[in-house]
Specification:
Largest sheet: 12 strands, antiparallel, barrel
Number of helices: 1
Shape: globular
Helix content: under 10%
Radius of gyration: 19 Å
Strand content: over 45%
Strand order of the largest sheet: 1-2-3-5-6-7-8-9-10-11-12-13
Length: 307
């Protein structure tokens, strides 16, 4: 039988690392939001405490056209491997009957490799390391039996490595904001979890290139079987749709609205070590039905514990 406390902690940990992935359409063939960044535990705010997550992401994709302001990269290939740390503090007080959490994320070692037909250089390749864009988030979550839901708002800051030329940028050189509602429903008898999150992201202008990505909607979802040994196995997916046009003098390709679908396997493991909750997760997505952004595959691996 699954212990209620252990199950709650496990879902809370899963919720943390499901929401701590760094930036991966629009300028550069990508926006601030990483589709598929929420899966198991998407609606859970964990019990009070301080939680730390370490994670890494591997993304490999290609784009026929990737605008960088007025410069257009053709037949581009991109590999991004950011490594991040996230810290979440769930306060020991209730707000509107829910748990309040404050968190921050920093991609501290982001590797990027970019290959493209660049107008002045011909076929060229660049690679390098750098700090990514930092973000902060406030969330408020409620639990009613086996149903949990959370409202969160996030903000990004342009702290990442950025060069307007043909460079392995780890940052986007602009900020942005996100509002998300997520839920998690668990059926204990069959041991099934269904989680989903719907978010909207608004991005600010890149003043260097005079380019502003359009507003985007993102729907993430995951369903899985929960086993008594702490393992959850299932499928995760997402739908991404840009709902407003790219703007600015740098948006020479016009609206350039991006869209994408992704689907793949998801695995997590949660346990207690000396009374301390510890969780690991891995997910892999294959993208399809993609327009006006990089398309490829993405793998995420994370570990979270509570102090």
């Amino acid at each position: 039988m699954i212990c209620n406390l252990k199950l709650g902690l496990a879902c809370g940990l899963l919720a943390i690392f499901a929401q701590t992935h760094p930036v991966l359409a629009g300028e550069g063939g990508a926006g601030l939001t990483v589709p598929g960044s929420q899966a198991f535990g998407a609606g859970v705010t964990p019990p009070k405490g301080v939680y730390v997550t370490l994670g890494t992401l591997y993304y490999n994709g290609r784009a026929d056209v990737a605008p960088q302001g007025a410069r257009i990269d053709l037949n581009a290939r991109k590999t991004a491997i950011p490594t991040l740390v996230n810290m979440l503090w769930v306060l020991p007080v209730e707000v509107l009957g829910g748990r309040l959490g404050l968190s921050g994320t920093l991609p501290f070692a982001s590797f990027t490799r970019l290959e493209a037909e660049e107008p002045r250089l011909g076929r060229a390749t660049v690679s390098g390391w750098g700090i990514g864009d930092a973000s902060i988030k406030a969330q408020l979550g409620w639990t009613h039996g086996t149903f949990s839901h959370t409202v969160s708002t996030s903000a990004w800051f342009p702290t990442g490595r950025y060069d307007p030329g043909f460079a392995p940028n780890a940052g986007k050189n602009h900020g942005g904001f996100n509002l998300t509602w997520g839920f998690t429903q668990i059926w204990k008898e069959p041991g099934i979890e269904l989680s989903s999150a719907l978010g909207v992201t608004s991005e600010l202008k890149n003043r260097t290139t005079d380019y502003r990505n359009g507003t985007a909607l993102n729907l993430d979802a995951a369903i899985g079987k929960i086993f008594s040994n702490g393992i959850t196995v299932g499928v995760a997916g997402y739908a991404y749709q840009q709902v407003s046009d790219d703007k600015g003098r740098g948006a020479t390709l016009g609206a350039f609205k991006g869209k994408a679908l992704g689907l793949g396997p998801a695995l997590s493991y949660s346990t207690l070590v000396n009374g301390r909750p510890l969780s690991f997760a891995i997910r892999h997505y294959r993208e399809f039905a993609v327009a006006h952004r990089f398309t490829g595959h993405m793998t995420t691996m994370t570990a979270t514990t509570r102090f």
